[in-house]
């Protein structure tokens, strides 16, 4: 089969103590390749699909995420799971009063950005793949160049596999990226402390009403709350603050001590209104510290036969881009389509990277500006102006 004589593994590696969210771009790539009868193997560190929480909710944009789902022949399945009402964007003042409420039209879900839980999206993609496509419990330790674009993947269990194309869909702390560039993620200056609430309409009606059907944001003095309505009566909340990366260590705080973390957060959010402070005091899940990282902008690399990147491995950026998962999935679909359309792997990857790199740089620049705006001294006014303009 011309360039497709070997399999095309891509490695999804989640280093310990780092962001371990699902990465749908690689699964999208695998799905599109299989639709065109191109063999692909997925290597995943996780022991099984159900080993961990998959994270919050995602909005799928027509020209990126939905475009990729259409290429994967999964758009109709997505729309049966999606929540168009989740597009609601609400801005709340530090006193808890609503200052902006952007409610989307009820119809035309494909023209908007309907929401879907990360776990549901990942399940949709996994279920679409052929049996045994994903090899679970495979931790990549190194990638060895063998020449002529062929690389050997070494895993922690002592096994190896050779590939004529290794697609690094392995996230923020990519092992594959280290063969292409010396760039490493840098702390953005902002940390999220994640918490959550279950059966919210019954158990936490005040917080449910404040969050509404989509996303609620409150910003003040380089701090804030971001609450997202998920399916199944769950709200996921990020208590956000511009702070030192080791803020908890400086405070002598044990992150597993829920009461101590709660007290530290309440001290930091002194003066905020009671409705918002409920997002700290009424937690059902405890707290997870999530410092936000981003790759330097611009992040590019010199084309290297047999290797390429997609998603966070290629363009890790702050979640304030609103584009992370969407770009990741578009990356996966574009790479797969390039492999289908070109006569050699190298031509395909070259064509893909000519699209990927400038698109990634533009998005990353926007994301860096957005997080700086949101956590500036006048962040609330800046974000409110943006929301008003776009609704």
Automatic annotation (TrEMBL):
Binding site for FAD: 59, 118, 312
Keywords linked to the UniProt accession: Cytoplasm, FAD, Flavoprotein, Monooxygenase, NADP, Nucleotide-binding, Oxidoreductase
Keyword Nucleotide-binding on entry: yes
Cofactor dependence: FAD
Chain segments carrying region Disordered: 1-25
Keyword NAD: no
Primary location recorded for the protein, binned into one broad class: cytoplasm
FAD-binding domain location: 24-341
Annotated compartments: Cytoplasm
Enzyme Commission identifier(s): 1.14.13.-
List of residues binding NADPH: 52
Compositionally skewed regions (Basic residues) per UniProt: 1-23
Enzyme class: oxidoreductase
Family: Belongs to the aromatic-ring hydroxylase family. TetX subfamily.
Subunit structure: Monomer.
Role noted for this protein: An FAD-requiring monooxygenase active on some tetracycline antibiotic derivatives, which leads to their inactivation. Hydroxylates carbon 11a of tetracycline and some analogs.
Domains as described in the record: Consists of an N-terminal FAD-binding domain with a Rossman fold and a C-terminal substrate-binding domain.
Protein name per UniProt: Flavin-dependent monooxygenase
